[in-house]
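Structure first, sequence second, as always.
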């Protein structure tokens, strides 16, 4: 596992890797519950406080409250129809599951607000990430100076090949052509989106690890139907 926002003492933000085992109920495979229990024990966190969402490659955000705790933590009874979660309550752990998509962690230090988003290319195109930053500003009085964002390991421009059929959906400036194949830099697009909503570059923490290149991570793009699992990203106030 790797941690983010480690200079702050009032938050835990962590992302698993395959040495933690499959932590995603979205992939069949055994031991998800046991692997999650081990992962949470290592972090000294309580698994029943975890909340996850269905993840439908949309851009809907849910405001999580204490009665939601446990949804999607030990079985597939996650909150339906969402790809991002936000809360300002302690004792709630927000989680998303990925295997190439971008896991994006949000932290407003001043107002003690946290959020997390699952963003594949569809979520990125639907602007879920800037939408979440805007929601924090509008509904939680988040100021740019206090908004910290981390992006965990995800598919890099080295491996994210796109075909002509979806090309029109992407701004062309982050497209690269190599040996007649088209590759897209989703990370650069997200950074650009965040800049347009006033997020400071100095407050960004971005993993350069590509989940498809690095075999420490589960990758659907690399392993296709043979993929054995997914990573879990979590964030909580402490
Ligand atoms: Zn790669």
């Amino acid at each position: 596992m790797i941690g983010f926002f480690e200079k702050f003492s009032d938050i835990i933000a962590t992302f698993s890797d395959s040495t933690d085992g499959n932590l995603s109920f979205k992939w069949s495979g055994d031991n998800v519950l046991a692997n999650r229990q081990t992962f949470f024990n290592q972090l000294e966190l309580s698994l029943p406080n975890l909340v996850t969402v269905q993840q439908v490659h949309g851009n809907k955000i849910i405001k999580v409250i204490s009665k939601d705790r446990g949804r999607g933590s030990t079985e597939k009874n996650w909150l339906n129809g969402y790809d991002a979660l936000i809360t300002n309550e302690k004792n709630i752990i927000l989680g998303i599951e990925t295997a190439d998509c971008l896991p994006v962690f949000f932290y407003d230090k001043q107002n003690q607000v946290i959020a997390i988003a699952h963003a594949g290319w569809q979520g990125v195109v639907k602007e879920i990430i800037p939408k979440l930053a805007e929601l924090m500003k509008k509904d939680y009085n988040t100021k740019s100076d206090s908004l910290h964002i981390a992006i965990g390991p995800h598919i890099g421009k080295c491996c994210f090949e796109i075909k002509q059929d979806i090309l029109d959906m992407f701004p062309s400036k982050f497209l690269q052509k190599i040996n007649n194949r088209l590759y897209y830099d989703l990370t650069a697009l997200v950074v650009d989106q965040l800049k347009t909503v006033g997020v400071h570059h100095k407050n960004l923490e971005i993993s350069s690890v590509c989940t498809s290149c690095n075999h420490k991570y589960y990758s659907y793009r690399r392993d296709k139907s043979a993929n054995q699992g997914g990573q879990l990203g979590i964030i909580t106030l402490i």
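Margin note: Residues 2-228 form a domain with the CNF1/YfiH-like putative cysteine hydrolases fold (CATH 3.60.140.10).
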